[in-house]
Write a structure and sequence with these properties.
The chain has helices at 8-16, 29-37, 49-52, 64-77, 96-108, 124-132, 148-151, 161-176, 189-198, 219-222, 240-257, 271-275; strands at residues 21-25, 42-45, 82-86, 114-116, 137-142, 181-185, 203-206, 214-217. By secondary structure, it is α/β, with parallel strands linked by helices. Helix 2 packs across helix 4 (64-77) and helix 5 (96-108) packs across helix 6. The radius of gyration is 22 Å and the shape is elongated. Bound molecules: 3-methyl-2-oxobutanoic acid (KIV). 3-methyl-2-oxobutanoic acid is lined by residues 25, 44, 46-48, 86, 140, 183, 185, 206, 216, 218.
């Protein structure tokens, strides 16, 4: 297959052509390499790295330096997918200047293709400033983990008419200011459908039903590598934890019993040479 690097414009064209968009998170080189090989369109270096890889309780402690470190590994692994750097908590909320500088770090230092930030009307001016600086922005509304304390926990959003209307307005606003795409997280499927129909830019759903223009999953959820909690919307395609645990146990057992390494895993020296050594 003749493949070329995917751009934000390609992602927008997919909506027009009625082709579903696939997106997964990745935080390191080997996973990025495999996702790219599988033909995933967008790789998000999500701040979910804080929970899935770094062991934080939530995404709030994640720093810009940590995000840059992981994004660099992903951009070294994926050649074709559009790579998005996720702006961590307090990297864009303080001022337009901070937001532009930090978004710029994703592009200059980590070689990302775009950034994502959470929020609708509340981040309007900041998102606009980043776009004006020439950096493509993916929006993210609904359940926004960085404002989890304000939302009262990991809950489905937009469940009454007023809250749903606010989501629709936020999505339209994000399109209006020039975002190239928007993530809809944990919102009722009929509301996501309405947003998807009203927007010209693509919607990428996570817990937002099948009518979004594309879907995203956290890779550790879909591989069964994170079980501190599993949201209803996270489909587990394989249980790697189980396989890895079995491998670690077998290794421990074989080393303890002296059955690993075998001859097959060892290096040899000519008997004649060996005999010369005192
Ligand atoms: O950080 C992340 O992984 C995300 C996705 C859930 C969209 O923001």
């Amino acid at each position: 297959m003749d493949r070329k690097k995917i751009t934000p414009l390609d992602i927008q064209a997919m909506k027009k052509e009625g082709r579903k968009i696939t997106m997964l998170t990745a935080y390191d080189y080997p996973i990025a390499l495999l996702e790219d090989r599988a033909g995933i369109d967008i790789i998000l270096v999500g701040d979910s790295v804080g929970m899935t890889v770094l062991g934080y309780q939530n995404t709030l402690p994640v720093t810009m330096d940590e995000m840059i470190h992981h994004t660099k590994a992903v951009t070294r692994g994926a050649k074709y997918a559009l790579i998005i750097g996720d702006m961590p908590f307090m990297s864009y909320n303080t001022s337009e200047r901070d937001a532009i500088l930090n978004a710029g770090r994703f592009m200059k230092e980590a070689r990302a293709d775009a950034i994502k930030l959470e929020g609708g009307a509340s981040v309007k001016d900041i998102a606009k400033a980043i776009i004006k600086a020439g950096i493509p922005v993916m929006g993210h509304i609904g359940l926004t983990p960085q404002t989890i304390s304000m939302l009262g926990g990991f809950k489905v959003q937009g469940k009454d008419a007023e809250a749903a209307q606010k989501l629709i307005d936020d999505a339209l606003l994000l399109e209006d200011i020039g975002s190239f795409c928007v993530v809809l997280e944990a919102i009722p499927a009929p509301i996501a459908k309405r947003i998807t129909e009203r927007l010209a830019i693509p919607t990428i759903g996570i817990g937002a039903g099948v009518d979004c223009d594309g879907q995203v999953l956290v890779v550790h959820d879909m591989l069964g590598l994170f079980d501190r909690f599993t949201p209803k919307f996270a489909k587990r395609y394989v249980n790697l934890s189980e396989l890895m645990l079995k491998a670690f146990e077998s290794y421990r057992e074989e080393v303890s019993k002296g059955t690993f390494p075998t001859d097959q895993h060892s290096f040899h020296i000519d008997e004649k040479e060996l005999s010369k050594i005192k």
